Amino acid sequence: MADRQTPLYETSPEQAPTRHRVVVLALDGLLPFELGIPQRIFGKARDADGRHLYEILTCSIRPPGPVETDADFAVLVGKGPEALATADTVVIPASYELGPVHDEGVLTPELAAALAHIRPGTRLVSICTGGYVLAAAGYLDGRPATTHWMHAEHFQELFPKVRVDADVLFVDDGDVLTSAGVAAGIDLCLHLVRRDHGTAVANDVARRTVVPPHRDGGQAQYIQRPVPEAQAATTTAARAWAIGRLDEPIQLRDMAEQESMSVRTFTRRFREEVGVSPGQWLTQQRVERARQLLESSALSVDQVAREAGFGTAQSMRQHLQAALGVTPTAYRRTFQSGNTSGIPVVDNDLLRKAG
């Protein structure tokens, strides 16, 4: 196992050695955009004093050298597979040259040898078809996972032990996380920053990167459908109207009235645009509001429940446990600014029930 302090991976004096280390595995045929996502998202995460919260390394499955991309250039990777042994999190972006991994669901000897460096307990993350590597290595057996919707059917046929969900942008199964195509890797990395260090840090990264801190809906909104007429109405105004009054009772007919649509038409149009039903979307927004208030305010749990539109603390508790696997009190204890460890304090029994 590689030594964390070997000169090959020595950090500069201002970089604390306790920072969470993310190692990105660059495979031949990789997409340059996806390769840059972890560096961009994790690299922008800083604490209140401006210190970097993550250290990001890139390695290949061979000794240092060029790695071919799907573009007209190669990237020079300065670290070999032994870097994987130093990782707290390993990220595997997509590749268009997975060979037997994609075609037969088996690892090449070279790739298997590289993955053998990964320590038990290391957090594993895939972007798009990078999930094929995790599945071929057996990391996804019996677990929920996702990949690009265009590959989901093939992925499920090739790996029948994996519980594939093609409707979501990413799946968080604790120590193993998978994302859908390309930009969903941004969603997943932001989610990890949020999970590790809270909403405020993740939102700051999103602002710096000029991306939304959270996207509604799943992959359904990106599957090819007939393009609506340019003059067709949308549900944007209704969503903005609802966001402005989450603390009030909101009925489906109220939202439909904002767009001058029937409830039936509004519901259909909403699902086409957002990927979930209006009720599901509204619950998501209230959960997000509750998270923000639990992190950033001194309001009691009862007050947070009212401000977020859940009405009662019991209702909010049920929704947060369903969405996050933790109680409001546990979430606040984990993510309020007083917790600087970045280590979630969660109830594992609740996590198992929610899963």
Rg, rounded, reads 21 Å
**Average of pLDDT:** 84
Summarize the biggest pleated sheet: 6 strands, mixed
Overall 3D form:
globular
- Number of helical segments with 4 or more residues: 15
Unreliable residue stretches: 1-17, 223-231, 338-355
Strand order of the largest sheet: 2-1-5-6-10-9
Helix content: 40-55%
Let me know the number of strands: 10
Strand content: 5-15%
- The structure class reads alpha/beta
The secondary-structure element order is EHEEEEHHEHEHEEEHHHHHHHHHH
Task: Please report the distance between the alpha carbons of the first and last residues.
Answer: 33 Å
Structure description:
The chain is an alpha/beta fold and 355 residues long. Helix content is 40%, strand content 11%. It contains 15 helices and 10 strands. The strands form 3 sheets. The chain has a 6-stranded mixed beta sheet. Strands 3-4 form a two-stranded antiparallel sheet. A two-stranded parallel sheet has the order 7-8. The N terminus and C terminus are likely disordered.
Lay out the secondary structure:
Blueprint: E1 20-25, H1 32-43, E2 54-59, E3 65-68, E4 74-77, E5 89-92, H2 100-103, H3 109-115, E6 123-126, H4 131-136, E7 144-145, H5 152-158, E8 163-164, E9 170-172, E10 176-179, H6 184-197, H7 199-209, H8 236-243, H9 252-258, H10 263-274, H11 278-296, H12 301-308, H13 313-324, H14 328-335, H15 348-354
Parallel strand pairs: 1-2, 1-5, 5-6, 6-10, 7-8
Antiparallel strand pairs: 3-4, 9-10
Helix pairs in contact: 1-6, 6-7, 8-9, 9-10, 11-12, 11-13, 11-14
